[in-house]
Amino acid sequence: MEFDSGSAELNQRIAEWLRWDKNEKTSAEIRELAQRGDWKVLGDRLLQRLTFGTAGLRGVMQAGFNAMNDLVVIQSAQGLAKYLLQCYPTAEERSRGVVLGYDGRYNSKRFAELSACVFLNENIPVWLYSHTVATPFVPFAVLELKCLAGIMVTASHNPKEDNGYKVYWTNSAQIIPPHDKNIQTSIMENLEPLETSWNLELLLSDKLNDPYDQMVELYFRKLQANVPQPFIRDYNTTSPLRFVYSAMHGVGYPFVVKAFECARLPAVIAVPEQRDPDPEFRTVKFPNPEEGKSSLVLSMQLANETGCDVILANDPDADRLACAEKDTKGEWRVFSGNELGALLGWWAIRCYREQYPDRSLSDCYLIASTVSSKMCRSIANVDGLNFIETLTGFKWMGNKSVELLSQGKTVLFAFEEAIGFMFSPTVLDKDGVSAACHLATMASYLRATSNQSLADKLNELYDIYGFHCTFASYHFCYEPPVIERIFKRIRNLGPGGKCTEGQNYPQSIADGRFKIADVRDLTTGYDSSQPDGRAVLPTSKSSQMITFSFENGAVVTLRTSGTEPKIKYYAEMCAQPGQRDWNGSKATLREMVDCIVEELLQPKENNLTPRSD
Q1: Residue 433: domain span
Q2: Of 102, 205, 253, 330, which cross-links 108 as Cys (Cβ 3.0–4.6 Å)?
Q3: Alpha-D-phosphohexomutase alpha/beta/alpha domain: from which residue to which, for each copy (predicted)?
């Protein structure tokens, strides 16, 4: 049956979908929309494609080329498989295979199995995890099994309607240019699915293996080796602390249990309603512990009932970690990702010194994304380490780690403010399982050696390295043209003559009270702090990111999210060691953030929705 939408291109896309899609549900979805003549919806779904962003493919599960569904997954796997064969053309190289994992979301296992069949059909061996796994177990397997690539089917902490497709390259780090663009090109060249791509009987092939037992055993053996044995013996085994744990309806629980066992920590007390995978995420509005107290209500209730002072929470695919601690007044403090990054960065150095007391720190590195706190930079400057800043996203930090390791350097720790932590390069991606183990060990160590809480230690670090006040939040914006308009306006707010290429950035906010010293725009490639006016970090016209450095030392970044309809903003004020007016720094930064939001984002005029928590 042919349909006439009035657009030859849309007619062709409808016909292609109905010809190619063998999934009865999504095929019927497109057919019914066409029968109703709902051409706008069909245009939205069929004339655009999902493309690789910050975290690979991610989108709502529904019919259409711009969504996550069987056909798009098969097309993506076909494109990736063909690209791998281009990069690794010999039979010997091909025999290294690929590894696939999946979380507990709707369709995750099916998407992984369909992908496996595509690779098997190309005579590429497949390691397919037989159970749900935490995301870090895919890059870990790529590294340990020396695979060509890895795929994790997950949408991390997105709403239940979403799913995603995270791709790791041969070096076990997430893909970056040119691989992301090349894979996208290869997908477009291999859109028509082979009949065999839908044949799940290929899962019986002798070229398919399950890495679960082997990788789980090896992962925890390596995790245990990364915890100094005296700390396990002297502090973990006798720790009086008890930890409430939430898997946020995801996959983390069995892995965190095993992590605590191998480090001989007290068993976690799991939030029962959130312990096991549940694709409905029925107890939380957003399955994202980054949201703060609103996502930790049940955890706090259980901790209060059981007398626990520390809460640990993973996101649903267990690559992020949140932490809350009860203070002396009985109030819960949820640490920000930047605060946890400072604590874990210090702890990584402490563990390294314990294990290698005779080694210099001069070849050791701490890494953070550009929108994260510079506290690790301050620690590195004082303690004689190296600090490197990358673009936002662990794909950049993972690949920078690969580069450093190839030069014989030691990467101790990497983090991003969105509660993502890489403690040692055992996994070249964020890992909420190992982070939970190390954070709990640190808490036990602090209690035993100095009777400090995590908050006490953080304040001590501020005394030594300087107070770093940070603030991060976001507004929802569901209309891409509005985002474009907002950032275009920001680039033309200042008086003429300051910037090249017709761009005139603001020179101050709050009626001139806070003057801007420098502007870096990683969308256009402009950086006023560089002699040639060109940014040092890589730039991308496909996303928005502007950083303002103020004369008073504050730094504020505005950027769009690569995975969600958000405009995010990050602000930091860095004090010198010994500077004690912390409340004054906080108040000034908060005032500046409020001015930035009102003057530059204009939430009322642009109908932006603020963060609820």
Answers
A1: 227-465
A2: 102
A3: 50-190, 219-326, 365-463
